[in-house]
Amino acid sequence: MPRKTTQRGGSPLHWSAESWAFISLRLFIGLRFLLAGLGKFKTQEGDYAFAQYYDGFATWIIGAFEKTDIPGFLISLYAYSIGYVEIVLGILLLVGVKTKWVLALIALTFVSLAYGQMVLGDNSKVDDIGLYLLFTSAALYFVRHNKLEALR
């Protein structure tokens, strides 16, 4: 008979499969988001620079969406903030701060990214983002099995 514990975390040796599934999803999604955000700052030489983000990535996004029906100020706001949003949400998820709410914000971010790709007509990227959204939904389902959380 499995040993029951009243401790919130308990020993990892006694965690359920659901707890392990959640921590795996949390680590994957957190790292994916953090590295996606950092990648927007990465130069060709492998360094990280704000100039790359503002002059490279954000300018490219604004140019890609300028012929769509989305208002320009929304495109600019999104382009200049998405990298920071990804980094902050990735770190918060990895650390375990308000995990359920951070996962919900990540899910909404994935929906917004998918919408942008739908507007551009890039169905393969929509499919990829949909897969990440599925992982995030699974993490939200298993969040009640969270054993490691810094701030509830």
From TrEMBL:
The chain crosses the membrane at residues 20-41, 77-95, 102-120, 126-143. InterPro entries: DoxX (IPR032808). It is found in: Membrane. It is a multi-pass membrane protein. Keywords: Membrane, Transmembrane, Transmembrane helix. Its main location: membrane. GO terms for cellular component: membrane. It holds the Pfam family DoxX. This is DoxX family membrane protein. It comes from Pelagicoccus albus. The lineage of its organism: Bacteria, Pseudomonadati, Verrucomicrobiota, Opitutia, Puniceicoccales.
